Amino acid sequence: MSVLVDRVEVWLAVPVGDQRKHAHALLRRAAAAVLGVGPEGLAVAREPGGRPYVVSRPGAADRGARPPVRVNVSVSHTRGLTAVAVCTGGDVGVDVEPARELPAVALARRWFAEEDVRWIEGHAPALRARALLWVWTHKEALGKAVGTGLAGGGRLRPVPLPASGLPPEPAGRPVTLREIFPGAGLTSAVPGGPEGYVLCVAGGPGTEGTPVSVTQVDC
């Protein structure tokens, strides 16, 4: 039996037809590739709180029978793009948003904690919308990783705010999940996504140092 190495794989695709059905199909393809089975050898299920996960069916592996294996997954769909994340080593969350003009400071004051607002205001006006989306995608991805979404004060959840402002795109450099704060038990990473989008991946306890890869596929 092959051993799954802890990693997060993010698959991105331009949606075709019904986006929710497209996201479900993309999720099955990504999980099948990670687990080494055909999509028909998977079962997609949900925890009581609604968080999805995928399990390989016993004996359904294309490369020989083996016990069922669970991987945690997350889905995000926005205008023009679907993102799915598959994590072999812990809980995972993914969020993607199109970069666009927004009343960033006004929205931040409405939704976020004062620290978030000050960080967004500290950027040049032309960068504030992207800074807002940095904060938003972190909160969404972290909420998915913990299984609560933005419920119960999720918009006020602290997120990493780089003192130097928005970091540059990774530009092909390896990206790993890093703890958002010492002792937080939650991790995040901002891998390079397609031009015009802001992408964030988050992980639960035990995911520190997990590598993240991003693949764009046709669907």
Oligomeric state of the chains in view: single chain
Number of helices: 4
Order of helices and strands: EHEEEEEHHHEEEEE
Please give the order of strands in the largest beta sheet. 2-3-4-5-1-11-7
Helix content: 10-25%
Task: Give a quick rundown of the structure.
By secondary structure, the protein is α+β, with helices and mostly antiparallel strands.
Structure description:
With 219 residues, this protein is α+β, with helices and mostly antiparallel strands. The protein has four helices and eleven strands. Helix 3 (114-121) packs antiparallel against helix 4. The model has no long low-confidence stretch (mean pLDDT 90).
Jot down its keywords:
single chain; globular
Q: What's the arrangement of secondary structure elements?
A:
Blueprint: E1 8-13, H1 19-35, E2 42-46, E3 52-56, E4 70-78, E5 81-87, E6 92-98, H2 104-111, H3 114-121, H4 128-146, E7 175-176, E8 178-179, E9 187-189, E10 197-203, E11 211-216
Helix pairs in contact: 2-3, 2-4, 3-4
